[in-house]
Amino acid sequence: MKTPVFAFTLSMIMCLCARAELKWEQTTIELHPAPNDKQAVGHFKYQNTGKTPVRFKSVHASCGCTTAQTQKEEVPPGDKGEITATFNIGDRTGTQVKTVTVETDEAANQKTVLTLKAEIPQQLEITPNFVFWKQGDKPDSKTINVKVGKDFNVKHIKATSSSPDFQAKVGEAGNGQFKIDVKPQDTNKVVASMLTIQAEDSTKVFYATARITNAQTAPVPPIAPAGLKPPVAPAGATAPARPTAPTGQTH
Amino acid sequence: MKFLLARQAAVVAALALLPAAGEAIYFRDKISWRSSIAPSEIVTVEEARGWGDTAIWVDARPDDEFASDHVPGAISLNEDRWNELLPQFLAVWTPGKKIIVYCSSLSCNASREVAHRLRKEAQLSDVFVLEGGWEAWLKKNR
Questions:
Q1: Residue B98 contacts A, CB cutoff 8 Å
Q2: Cα–Cα distance between A232 and B62 in angstroms, integer?
Q3: A-to-B residue pairs, Cβ atoms closer than 8 angstroms
Q4: What's the CATH architecture for A124-250?
Q5: Interface pTM (ipTM) of the complex?
């Protein structure tokens, strides 16, 4: 009765042994970049445990934000090396999973998928980061919720509007959360403002946009606060950028 | 006899399920490159073209690919420079407009991610991902 199970197990082991020329130390790497890191780099180490050289045919990353480099094109028997995967974080947030597909000339197991998992810490989670009113709407305040990331200790935040057309008022919402009430002076004209949100004693800046909009009129470019390049006026937009006059409150 | 065979089959199946369960637990938060998208949030090139001026095209590809070529009138919005590009996009968005996000086969997950962030962070509705991306648009338009 045990013969079929034994034969199956043996065949599985033989298959595994036959294809295990390029042996990877690990095919998944989890990284925890610091809040201001620009890149997350993973080193996928391998060794040629076979008796013949292994040649890399191709190394492809799953997206343009990730690059992968091999140290050598051919790996002699017994040799070790690594593939370096560099993930450019940009303005990405949360859990990011990027893959690198490695193709070799091995008889078996020609394709190996290397996985880079990066947990990008987010000091403040801002929802929504866009509030708007239609022209002529009642100028009631709208609320932006700010949640502090689990690994951060933020006691106070400040919010500043780049335009005097909007007021931003910060309040505590409990459980490490804040709320920002945004109120337009009026909704008669099409205007926009960039809200700069910052935790006290932190250099990291977050943004939200407030806007009075009208589907029938040309859009207005928002105002860029210091530190951000001024947005390019979109095609068709004729309204000039308004002068910056920050107004706001610190909690 | 049959019972023993069934038991052995069950044992083998259970062993095969172990790594799958491990992967599911490890990637429980999110698997961006496998993230599913509802059919109602996907639009074909033909449907999107039919929307005409009632839609805004959003290019989720990296800057260099956008600079090289893009759908006429498209706005660049990628995650490399999200904080800088989002206000530019919001400046041209108007209520009621549909948003069509596309990327290329090389950065094919980018459109899904950008669409997801527009829905979640900016809380915009009517956000669609272009089926087949930039290559599909090229095929139908050039």
A1: no
A2: 17
A3: 125
A4: Sandwich (2.60)
A5: 0.74
